[in-house]
Amino acid sequence: MSHTGKHHWPEYLMEAAGLGLFMLSACFFTALLEHPASPIRQAIPAPVLRRILIGLAMGTTAVCLIYSPWGQQSGAHYNPSVTLTFLRLGKVAPQDALCYVVAQFLGGVAGVLLAAYLADSIIAHPAVHYAVTAPGPNGVGIAFLAELAITFVLMSVILRVSNTPALAHYTGLCAGALVATYISIEAPLSGMSMNPARTFASAFTAHSWMALWVYFTAPPLGMLLAAEVYRRRHGAAAVGCAKLHHQNHKRCIFCAYHAGRVLPHSVAGE
Question: 27-53 pLDDT, tens per residue?
Fold first, then answer.
């Protein structure tokens, strides 16, 4: 392992743990609100309302993870598409990007496996189905376009807000709000993934591989497209750091890698 890998392994573990906790939360709240035996499911017969509640729960989970001590240090990507986008923008070292992506996949799988270990009969029920993401009744093509659109908007918001000093602290809140909104509104189209590792984690445990290619192609394409649009409008120098939450005093492994130039956020907390 290189010098970088030896010293950055805590961030890799934080990324794995972050997506693992997100998947554990996804399985738990899906079971709580969708399993037929759940009292909450019985008390709320309207699918739209249940979906809104799941969205609020997962949006809140995302916010908590982003602003957690681990999220503040790792940058809270929790998504290979986010990491690959910042790699394309030159804000992440290639080895760090590779290790982040591997950690995200492993962490996501571990989270779903833990949920299955704790309550397999509940998590495996068809109404819960390990929180699998799958195309809706409108088909695979619509699911692809929907994933492309929501990831484009998400990354556009992240780049704009995180690189606006007066707003940067609210990047995590904006991301969480979009997660909640997308689950509430977009989930019937694609299952609302935005994340290849998140989809793979559920698919691996459920042995359900339907349209996996959608979730491995649309999210990175959507985010990379957003990055290209942002660069063309504002310039490459307008992107400061690969962290979603940089206004803290945790170390930043990204600011040490910026192709030989000093970034505006080179010191944590500035």
Answer: 999 999 999 999 999 999 999 999 999
